[in-house]
Sequence to fold (750 residues):
Amino acid sequence: MTELSQLETDRRALLGAAGALAVLMMQPGWIAVARAQEGATRRDPRFAFADRLCDLTIPATDTPGASAAGVPAFVLMALDEGMHGLKPEMLDRVMARLDGDAQGMFLGKSVNVQLNLLTGLDRAAYASRPADPLGAEAAWRRIKSAIVAGYYASEVGASQELVYEPAAGTSENIVMPADYRARSNEGHGGAW
Amino acid sequence: MAEFDAIVVGSGITGGWAAKELTERGLKVLMIERGPELAHIAGYKNEWTSPWDLPFKGYGDPKAERTTKRVQSVARLNEWNADYFVDDEQELYETPAESNFQWVRGYHTGGRSIMWGRQSYRMAPDYFEANVRDGHGIDWPIRYKDLASWYDHVEEFIGVNGTIENMPILPDGKFQPSMGFNAGEQHFADLIKAHYRDRRLIPGRTANLTKPIGERGTCQYRNWCSRGCSFGAYFSTQSSTLPAAVATGRLTQLHNGIVESIEFDPQSRRATGVRIIDGETGQRSIRTARIVFLCAGAYDSVGILMRSVSESCPNGLGNSSDVLGRYIMDHAYKVGATSTIPGLDQAMYLGRKPNQVIIPRFVNIDRQETDFLRGYSFWGRSERMNWNRGGEIAGVGVGFKQALRKPGPWAITMGTVIEALPRRENRISINHDKLDKHGLPLTRIDLRYGDNEQKAARHAFDELMGMMKLLGGEILSANREIAPPGSSIHEMGGACMGHDPQASVVNAFNQLHEAPNLFVTDGSVMCSTGDRNPSLTYMALTARAAAAAVSMAQEGKL
Fold:
């Protein structure tokens, strides 16, 4: 029998646990529940618009974007539950603004046009504190905050796009390396 | 014949200390906790939970924040630790609108020691003399020298990391190696040192281990202490005092035991035990002991004494002087600001340091120099801004995502801890017309800040702005307004110590003047607040009182 280092033993134990979890998640009950929830969210008439906003804001690059990370469902939940002052009508205001700027259906435009239109709204929203707290610019700032919060608290955003580090085990001052990637943990649970 | 040598009411910071000290000195102790058991390690169910596995991704249940956790949300409540805080719709109290007291509580083993802020400071010698000097409140019956060795005792057991500073206003202690500064904090400390002769920014003193103590491991720099720590790396009842008490073989624990009142024998003028309501069945029972330590948390302890009504004590036990419930206090809090720190772009840190920095009091040290009495201190912390800044800056698309891969600018947040003057009219009372779900009359808390706190807040804010200007950064937020009382979770007073039985509730060894075998050792006995986190002082007072109680018992004086 090959003697394993403690580190290797721990790693194998971890992989074994992950495998067991994967098997568990393959059980029909899990799949049925997950699919039912996903289906309900996707049938929400607002889903397509929220999904577009998410992927325009945080697109797929070398890591998945906000849409693949499940952020649209989080944003819709945040709107419906009133998380951090969000209100369902905020999405309507942003949609009306973008439809107006598009002189038609925003969702019917090409991705490039959509990106230009959203960039325009974003610049206006952050040029100064929006004068109208109920307007589309203020609403966009809140929704964008929710998109960011949802993405970096998702498994994809937290552990693939950024580094998820539950226990650093040390506290050191360093010169930041060129390839340093931020730790997602630092913002989890924070205000947005 | 009493069942136990001593009953300890409460298992929080002071209850745990009372149980440890009394059992280690040979007493058979019953520790009564009003909430359920929360076991070390096994009870920390969300300690390692990832945000994506929580229903609201770590941002909290908004409905609960509006209802069951409405008050508790002023504290460091989050989706990981929300179960450690009471249900506001179940654990009722009253407060007039003019007070709006925010009563943050945790009813389970360890009480708030699980989610406390861990900042551990000694009161300055001067703070024990402030009341008699300026005529506010009750003169402390002890001075710093009476508590100094007990501070040593507590610090060495719980493990406090800090730096030796030789500042009379902030006595040094028995410290583990400090967690030190990060680059942002060091830069601000250097600027303050260069521009001011009267103040200094120093590392916080926190009860997180930088060296192991017994079975307790060192801090893992996660900065999520309030979830519970399976390493035992910060002080809590569970990690520290409870194991010590259990190890003696002389501790009995009782959970879900709500102490309704103290049993009192008017002939001998002694407490004989406590009357308990079973939190699950509602059944009442009496447990007896030769000594009772009341450590239920400041305002709950006052409530128990006020509910201990009998023919000989019609206004509550210990209240013949009408001082019980009076002089309640809480630090005035939340005045502060956040500024960016330019010029440190290449500086970074590893780990999430669960500590802060402080600027100890620098006003009214040797002479009265302001239009308000006493003073304030600053606390704060510096970090690089994280991905959360994405909601506050312009940008969408690939470039936006790439930018958030890197840490943001350095920023520092500083806030004030303002001493609140003790005022007789700030008080707790009992509303016998309204009962809670346990059938107990509601505790009514009326604490209002006065002109002195408001003046101190204005002074502190101006001083902070002056210091932050040195950074040359952008002020991201600033708040001049004091938060409602209770927000600092440093509630104190109500059963103040004192020499005079006609003007105080307990004596210099925390004995109730009217029942010398009843010791009150939590924050209720504080005569003044100082301007710093008080828990270390509660612990030192408890250890001192426990040693005195055992000596007195051995000498037949109880």
In short: The longest strand of chain B covers residues 284-294. The mean pLDDT of chain B is 97. The longest helix of chain B spans residues 535-554.
